[in-house]
């Protein structure tokens, strides 16, 4: 049986954050399989009872006067024991993947918000230029963790974003900073 968001509400720190009315739940588009094959790592390969059992995303309510309108996202991830590198410990490469992905979720949330307001259908057009990961503590598995991402700054086509994987009580397993560059449209 697949876990649900109601399973998260039984965990005190999750219930507290889920009740925060400054955030709204949003679909995690990278968890939806696509005919193009896009997002297949997160949507298919890492969507099972032994890998990422549940991914529930929230974002800050948009500030229509700000750019970007959605400054931060967070996700509750229920991780299984099929992600081990070391026994009962999450693989470091997967940790980097999760950090990169939560930053992509933030970028996508803003593209989706812009599309709704402008009545357009533009896709995500930014790519990771660099990702610097700092591993703080081994991430034990199985676990429910909190992934967060927020903009540090935006300069033209450059988007600087920070992210973290935590236990929900302030213990950081890993943090990252990244630069995403918006690809120039082809003429």
List keywords for this structure.
187 residues; Thiol Ester Dehydrase, Chain A; 37% strand; 9 strands; 7-stranded antiparallel sheet; 4 helices; alpha+beta
Provide a compact summary of the structure.
The protein has helices at residues 5-8, 12-18, 40-45, 92-118, and strands at residues 23-26, 52-60, 72-79, 84-86, 89-90, 126-135, 143-155, 158-166, 172-182. With 187 residues, it is α+β, with helices and mostly antiparallel strands.
Q: What are the SSEs and their pairings?
A:
Elements: H1 5-8, H2 12-18, E1 23-26, H3 40-45, E2 52-60, E3 72-79, E4 84-86, E5 89-90, H4 92-118, E6 126-135, E7 143-155, E8 158-166, E9 172-182
Antiparallel strand pairs: 1-2, 2-3, 3-7, 4-5, 6-9, 7-8, 8-9
**Strand elements, count:** 9
| Percentage beta strand | 35-45%
Head-to-tail CA distance between termini: 48 Å
Number of domains: 1
- Give the second-level CATH assignment, the architecture: Roll
CATH superfamily membership: Hotdog Thioesterase
Question: What spatial order of strands do you see in the largest sheet?
Answer: 1-2-3-7-8-9-6
Q: Which geometry do the CA atoms define?
A: globular
Helical run tally: 4
Q: Class in CATH?
A: Alpha Beta
User: Helix share of residues?
Assistant: 10-25%
Q: Main beta sheet, described?
A: 7 strands, antiparallel
Structural class estimated from helices and strands: alpha+beta
InterPro entries: HotDog_dom_sf, PTE-AB_protein, Thioestr_dom
Domain Thioesterase: 89-171
Organism: Aplosporella prunicola CBS 121167
Protein name: Thioesterase domain-containing protein
